[in-house]
Amino acid sequence: MVLLDSPARMKASSAPASMKLHVVHRTTFHYPGAVTQNLNEVRLKPVSDGFQNCDSFQLNTQPASLPSSYLDFYFNWVEFFEISEPHRELVIEGISEVTTSATVLTPNSTSTPMSSLGQVIQSDRCHDFIQPTSLIALTPEIWRLALDATAGQSDIWQAAIAIMRFMHSELTYMPNTTNAHTPMLEALKAKRGVCQDFAHIMLGMCRSIRIPARYVNGYLYNGPVDQLLGTQASHAWCEIYLPECGWQGLDPTNNQPVDERYVKVAVGRDYSDAAPIKGHFRGPGGGNMNVEVRVERGF
Questions:
Q1: CA distances (Å), 118 to each of 112, 212, 219, 263, in order?
Q2: Tens of pLDDT along 17-46?
Q3: Domains in the chain and their CATH numbers?
Q4: Is residue 261 a contact partner of residue 186, using CB atoms and an 8 Å limit?
Q5: Strand partners, 95
Q6: Interatomic CA distance for residues 18 and 13, integer angstroms
Q7: Tens of pLDDT, residues 262-274
């Protein structure tokens, strides 16, 4: 097995950058009439792992509620609450302070030979992330597309980089053409979509050639001058599993590895496992939802 710090295999920055970020995620639901028994579960608290630490988190709701919490199957932090009294508006706000750091991998790094994938996917932590879902298809056409995109690649990380670059060249980022529940095949056929679509398509291509890959929901700091895509609301990207490094992030929307500008909140097989808010209520349907996300540099 190749060690993480092996100079013959890994090319890493000598001092990974770090960043303190302040995140405010506010979702407002407006209902056409009074609703009751409004039950919601939210995944808004950033994770603490080897690349970031959630320094503080606060969940606010209006009307006020008393949330309970648990860790779900993928170790995402989930808070759930119910508002029983009649109301015509619900505001859910998550406020986070996070310290992030850059990954040790660069676009030129090498990691694990593709020939080792048979052993990699035997790990329990990888099983769910090589499977199809209702949003991610593993068809012969996707497999052929992935093979063409990774032709000549013998390293897992470099194969994933090749898929990311292929997607970035073939798809157009275009808001309001899909939604979070659009199947990847539909977005791929149209060759356009938003960050969730880019992530779902990359997951399908990686999984079709047996590279373990999972969906990530979170945020992206755009900075004062950067022109990154997908920063107006929650952002989505992919992580692939490398035995020597663990889960490593790639952002197909912006064609780059994940670095200190990214805040990871939740992971799963696809969007449905990592959605920021899920809920149901008793009352008239319809209404509208407004989402505001602000990511600022801390001090």
A1: 12, 11, 33, 31
A2: 889 999 999 999 999 999 999 999 999 999
A3: 18-100+276-297 (2.60.40.2250), 102-274 (3.10.620.30)
A4: no
A5: 24, 58
A6: 12
A7: 999 999 999 999 9
